[in-house]
Design goal:
Length: 148
């Protein structure tokens, strides 16, 4: 029989992981706040980053949105905890959509989660400009190598 939502969505929706907020006045906390233009749903994501290793040590979310958006953010928090910022920046919404078996009309809900982690990472870099310099330099070097 065909259900409207996959059971993985229902699981995350009914028992969302890592709901809440972190202290955003903390320099090691990055905040992502994004909205989906298509439906007006909003997601807030906080990441706490270990300044030594650039590893995401804690992550919390609050999503005012549909079941798929809540499930996407809940799954995202499990996915990125323990990742470095560079690894987390590469998380794609398609990866989330695949895990949760989201149908095409719900793809933008997982996009919200990808946007939220990118936005949180950017915010962290903004609060910690020294990190940004090294990381950006590294990325530019990689691009140059790829172009050469
Ligand atoms: Fe807009 Fe899901 S319907 S985030």
């Amino acid at each position: 029989q065909k259900r409207q939502y996959h059971e993985k969505v229902l699981d995350h929706y009914s028992r969302p992981r890592n709901v809440g907020t972190l202290d955003k006045t903390d320099k090691s906390v990055g905040e992502g706040l994004v909205g989906a233009p298509a439906c007006g749903d909003v997601m807030r994501l906080h990441i706490k980053v270990d300044p030594e290793t650039q590893v995401i040590s804690d992550v919390r979310f609050k999503t005012f949105g549909c079941g798929s958006a809540i499930a996407s953010s809940s799954y995202l928090t499990e996915l990125v905890r323990g990742m470095t910022l560079d690894q987390a920046a590469k998380v794609k919404n398609t990866e989330i959509a695949k895990e949760l078996c989201l149908p095409p009309v719900k793809l933008h809900c997982s996009m919200l989660a990808e946007d939220a982690i990118k936005s949180a990472i950017n915010n962290y870099y903004k609060k910690n400009p020294d990190v940004k310099t090294t990381s950006l330099a590294g990325r530019e070097a990689k691009l140059e190598t790829a172009a050469a």
